[in-house]
Amino acid sequence: MDLITKNRFYFWSIIVLVILNILVLATFWAQRLVPRPNHCPPGGKPPSGGHFIMDELGLTPEQASKFQELREVYFKETGSVSNEIRELRKLILDELLASEPDTARVTQLIEGIGENEIKRERLYFDHFLKLKSICRPDQRERFESFMNELMRMIEPPGLHGPRGDRPPPPKGQP
Question: Would residue 174 count as lying in a domain?
């Protein structure tokens, strides 16, 4: 290749690259100008997990109304329990940061957290038991599948992983 042909090749390569860069920048700029779709209904609140449950179970409007009432009560009750746990944890932190922590008081605070966790689990159970009670017999099978999936999603990672369903290996083996 002679020098003129080489230069012409570089010249056109640079022109093509500049055009590609301009197109990429224009695409990014255009995407910023286009408003993103809002997944919120007209009321302004995003859809809740309650709608997912209602759809999964195929609740009737009457059942859905009762379920919404159950949810409101459940979240109100669990909210107060969660606040109590948060306050107890703050008090534990205060003891930890104290120059001379009172370990007996910390034990009482930890027991208080445990009692509140028991309350929260009981509220959880009662809530879903009430949901089950408003389901028709044909919806109960979907309820059971939904609860099994929910339990699978919230269980600790690795519980049923590569070794979760097997007995531990013999000593000396990984």
Answer: no
- Predicted pLDDT of residue 39: 45
Domain encompassing residue 135: 67-151
To which residue do tokens 């093509």 refer? 16
CATH number for position 89 = 1.20.120
The model carries a pTM of 0.59
Q: What's the pLDDT tens digit per position in 16-41?
A: 898 988 988 888 787 777 665 544 44
Residue 134 belongs to some domain of the structure: yes
